[in-house]
Amino acid sequence: MPTRRRKSKLLKHSAGLAIVSKKILRVSQVASERGVRILHSISKFSATHRVLQEMLQIGAVTKLSLVLQVNCGAKTMKTAGAILKLHARSWKSSPCVPMELFDSYPSRFSDGIRG
Fold first, then answer.
1. Which Enzyme Commission number(s) are on file for it (predicted)?
2. Could you read off the pLDDT of 38-49 as tens digits, one per residue?
3. Among 104, 39, 110, which residue's Cα sits nearest to residue 68?
């Protein structure tokens, strides 16, 4: 997990989240695992409105949904699902997120967010 100082530096860098997101599913299984863990830490402990909007704009939310669809390992898939579930209410009405994202995973998002 990134330390508080590292998270702060990552969030201050204009391409920080984009670089982490880009490495998921493109470099290696280990890079995907670490990238999802970093996004999980940021989304759990540093999730401001700006951060959540940036995650949408750079495609991190879409990338997390892809993690659920490919064989990335159970722990990585569980972590990606936890991030999506944690902020589903913020992202559900965004035009950047396809409706099918939440509709196609009713068991993971079964708290009535989409209907």
1. 2.3.2.27
2. 999 999 888 888
3. 104
Angle between helices 60-69 and 16-23 (to 10 degrees): 20
Give the C-alpha separation, 35 to 29, whole Å: 10
Largest interatomic CA distance in the chain: 40
For the range 105-113, what are the long-range contacts, defined as Cβ-Cβ under 8 Å and sequence gap of 24 or more?
A: 105/68, 105/81, 108/68, 108/81, 108/84, 109/84, 109/85, 113/88, 113/89
pTM, to two decimals: 0.76
Which residue stretches of the chain are H helix?
4-12, 16-23, 29-45, 49-57, 60-69, 74-86, 88-91, 100-103
